[in-house]
Design a protein that fits this description.
single chain; 108 residues; mainly alpha; 2 strands; flat
Length: 108
Amino acid sequence: MRILARSASAAELAKDFATAQGLVHLANSGSTSWHGFASAIVEGFKARGQPVKASAVHAITTEEFPTRAVRPANSRLDLSRLRQVFGVTTPSWQQALGRELDILVRRG
């Protein structure tokens, strides 16, 4: 099993995926809700000593946030073909978010 390197270019990935003969999802591993993601961002900035205006993130239902598009009850991506066809695993969304927050903090 290899872990997808950050240095893999879009062109390299496209070439590899073209050989898959079917749909292959590429995303960070794990799952969360929009509420969980937003909460992790706020908590991540707080943990890094950054000022955050939001004191809390409140979960709402899909019905409380109406959109024209119908939202699926489950929109998680299945990464099993990525593992099976390419032997690739991806870092967790928490690890990826942590790296991005670190970059944002360094940039000021």
